[in-house]
Amino acid sequence: MLNNYNGMAQPLWQNGPAPGEFYNFTGGQTVQKLPRELTTAGPYGTKRSTAAITTGSSVLGIRYDGGVMLAADTLVSYGSLARYQNIDRVFKINKNILLGGSGDFADIQSIMRNIDQKMIEDQCYDDNIEMKPKSLASWMTRVLYNRRSRMNPLYIDVVVGGVEQNGTPYLANVDLRGRAYEDFVVATGFARHLAVPLVRENKPKDKEFTAEEASQLIRKCMEVLYYRDTRNSSTYTVGVCTPNGCGVEGPYQVNENWTFAATIKGY
Amino acid sequence: MDPDFDFDFTQKPVSTGTTIMAVEFDGGVVIGADSRTSSGAYVTNRVTDKLTRITDKIYCCRSGSAADTQGIADIVAYSLNYHENRTDKEALVLEAASEFRNFCYNYRDSLLAGIIVAGWDEQNGGQVYSVPLGGMMTRDPCTIGGSGSSFIYGYVKEHHKPNMEQEDCVEFVKKAVQHAIYRDGSSGGVVRIGIINKDGFERRLFYNTESGASQISGNQSFILEQVMDAAN
């Protein structure tokens, strides 16, 4: 029982939720009964772990008049250890979609494999129709929400960006609980706290960003994230998606400035 | 209660507190490991071979739980052997690494396995793949693993150069593992090295003492001869 409010509580309506009980939304199809080895705590059983082990830090996405830009650093951490320092976390899905992945990197690789399979299926139809960014974002919310409802989440936070059929740019963020959010700037992790307000403050009213403005903002945000996030590195890649094409460029170096440190003495 | 002096080593899971390492060079790979298996504070095997054969030209270095990694390695070796018989072609290193990754990812909540897969195949030459806890997979020209690896990240960064010669790689791996053994209590024993190239697998063994053999011969008593004579 999740909470011990009332052990004798009746369901609110027939087959409905009971106070303090875990409610099965899938109605009929109960949570798969896991084998005893996976639900018994140690030392000879195992504890079900939803911990993220090898993780990627922030991803930032900015929408501009000609498309979208996604940026992420090239680091995958192992706790506090900066373990793999040359990993691309922005992926080209097809000629209209980019995906930036943060959170547990093994789960990112797993979902990317699923997505690549979908793209190959698309190609096999051979009808020149490619998946649209909004469709992919919608599919991701379904997958992630269902996994969380089964108490077995994919520990990831992704940014989906791209260009729709009619040329309008699309940018969204889907998290490990299946929550989706669409806006001209989205981010995961630390970037949500540091970069999103920075970008919002610089947004011209009633007008989209230009490509130069978006690039400037990405450069600035990557610099701030490198200074202030302990799980970031100074190299990053940028994915750009326009109606004319889609690709991931990099790796770029953050332009760091430390010279003012000489002016600080004592505490 | 200090857990290391519990003497409850019968109950502690057997794990390879370890140092493992693999480096690519032009024409193959060099893999290395220490030889200690521990159960808490007790050394259950001081001459372990952690360089495990998957196929003739693909080997893996195991760290984490000995039972888990041995189990997975057996299964992957069996599966690739069947695959080689069916296709009449040597298995690719990427194929072995992918099988390890699929296992380690799908059963990630039940396993404690950090594996380095290294070998040589005709398509891509020498390759090293890292499959840490959690089950991600990435190719690296030089990678280290196990508890002892924490102590040599600095050494490796300083002394690794891409495309070294084979003998330079062997010296580099040997020194690195020795440094880890020096500081890590869970690593020890001898340094086992393996060289994999188009001609197959060559094993080398390096001791941390002069000869590896016992230095003191015969029955040496601690009682000084003078004292013996005086007593008589």
From TrEMBL, chain A:
InterPro entries with a match to the protein in the record: Ntn_hydrolases_N, Proteasome_beta4, Proteasome_bsu_CS, Proteasome_sua/b, Proteasome_suB-type
Keyword list, A-Z: Cytoplasm, Nucleus, Proteasome
GO biological process, one term: proteolysis involved in protein catabolic process
GO cellular component, one term: cytoplasm
Cellular compartment(s): Cytoplasm; Nucleus
A Pfam family per the record: Proteasome
Protein purpose: Non-catalytic component of the proteasome, a multicatalytic proteinase complex which is characterized by its ability to cleave peptides with Arg, Phe, Tyr, Leu, and Glu adjacent to the leaving group at neutral or slightly basic pH. The proteasome has an ATP-dependent proteolytic activity.
Family statement drawn from the similarity comment of this UniProt entry: Belongs to the peptidase T1B family.
Subunit structure: The 26S proteasome consists of a 20S proteasome core and two 19S regulatory subunits. The 20S proteasome core is composed of 28 subunits that are arranged in four stacked rings, resulting in a barrel-shaped structure. The two end rings are each formed by seven alpha subunits, and the two central rings are each formed by seven beta subunits. The catalytic chamber with the active sites is on the inside of the barrel.
Name of this protein: Proteasome subunit beta
Gene: Prosbeta7
TrEMBL record, chain B:
Keywords: Cytoplasm, Hydrolase, Nucleus, Protease, Proteasome, Threonine protease, Zymogen
Sample GO molecular function, one term: threonine-type endopeptidase activity
Localization annotation: Cytoplasm; Nucleus
UniProt entry tagged with the keyword Protease: yes
The keyword Hydrolase is annotated on this UniProt entry: yes
InterPro entries, per the entry: Ntn_hydrolases_N, Pept_T1A_subB, Proteasome_bsu_CS, Proteasome_sua/b, Proteasome_suB-type
Catalytic-site annotation from UniProt: T18 (nucleophile)
Catalytic activity: Cleavage of peptide bonds with very broad specificity
A GO cellular-component term linked to this record: proteasome core complex, beta-subunit complex
Biological process, per Gene Ontology: proteolysis involved in protein catabolic process
Subunit structure as annotated in this protein's UniProt entry: The 26S proteasome consists of a 20S proteasome core and two 19S regulatory subunits. The 20S proteasome core is composed of 28 subunits that are arranged in four stacked rings, resulting in a barrel-shaped structure. The two end rings are each formed by seven alpha subunits, and the two central rings are each formed by seven beta subunits. The catalytic chamber with the active sites is on the inside of the barrel.
Functional description taken from the UniProt entry: Non-catalytic component of the proteasome, a multicatalytic proteinase complex which is characterized by its ability to cleave peptides with Arg, Phe, Tyr, Leu, and Glu adjacent to the leaving group at neutral or slightly basic pH. The proteasome has an ATP-dependent proteolytic activity. Component of the proteasome, a multicatalytic proteinase complex which is characterized by its ability to cleave peptides with Arg, Phe, Tyr, Leu, and Glu adjacent to the leaving group at neutral or slightly basic pH. The proteasome has an ATP-dependent proteolytic activity.
Family according to the record: Belongs to the peptidase T1B family.
Record-given protein name: Proteasome subunit beta
Organism of origin: Drosophila kikkawai (Fruit fly)
Protein's gene: LOC108078440
